[in-house]
Here is the input.
Amino acid sequence: MIPNLKLNEDDYTNMAMNLAIFKHAKADEILIKAKNAITNPDKVKRFEFLLPSLSKDKSVRNAFMESLKDDANREKESWVSAALSNIHHPLRQESAQKYIRFSLDLVDEIQRTGDIFFPKDWLDNTVGKYSSKYAFDEVQRFLKENPNFSPILKRKLFMATDLLYKAQNSKKETE
Here is the structure.
């Protein structure tokens, strides 16, 4: 406990979510307490939406990702972006990297069905979270297999993967 530390409801909720991602031993219990402490009904709905992305069970996270194929499950775009950030968090990338291609394959539909800013958020919170050779190779393979990929989306992809490309270049320089 830190004396005189004042935290609001959102601070507690965010800490609970981070503890889940960091695999705290009591994460499930903490998430339940955090949910029960939320007073705003809309924030409860958001938290409930994010819970599968925070699950320690890979099959729950996998089912959540599969559910995003349905555009009805992408209606609250800011919620989806936050969930994707949880799924693709650096501590979870080993289990989430299989969704890089999935995310790239959906981005064209995301553009058609979502807000103008959603494709960039989608890319930032999926492939944009990576620095690995695997992610780099997936992006290269996707671009090679999709020569007619929208130039607008390609620019967004390049913006989202700028650090991925820089990481690969710096690895080459140190070899």
About this structure: Residues 99-113 form the longest helix (15 residues). The two ends are 46 Å apart (CA to CA). The mean pLDDT is 94. The chain is about 70% helix and 0% strand.
